[in-house]
């Protein structure tokens, strides 16, 4: 069985760039959207409880 060849530098760079973009999308875009949706749901529930 032959040992695996080393991973080329360009693949490491591509992987790092992809990871950085994914982290930015998740934390900078999805998190505020999620907090906004949760806030709207909390507000709707609060208003619904006040009616009764």
Report on the structure:
- The protein has one helix at residues 9-51.
- The protein is mainly alpha-helical and 52 residues long.
- It has one domain (15-52).
Topology:
Blueprint: H1 9-51
Q: Specify the helix fraction band.
A: over 70%
State the domain count.
1
**Structural class by sheet pairing and helices:** mainly alpha
Count helical runs: 1
Give the percentage of residues in beta strands: under 5%
- Mean pLDDT score: 94
- Rg for CA atoms: 22 Å
Q: Count the strands? A: 0
H/E series: H
Largest sheet: none
Which blocks of ≥5 consecutive residues have pLDDT under 50? Answer: none
Give the overall shape, derived from the CA principal axes.
Answer: rod-shaped
End-to-end C-alpha gap: 73 Å
Search tags:
mainly alpha; 1 helix; rod-shaped
Task: Offer a quick outline of the entry.
The protein is mostly helical and 52 residues long. The chain has one helix at residues 9-51.
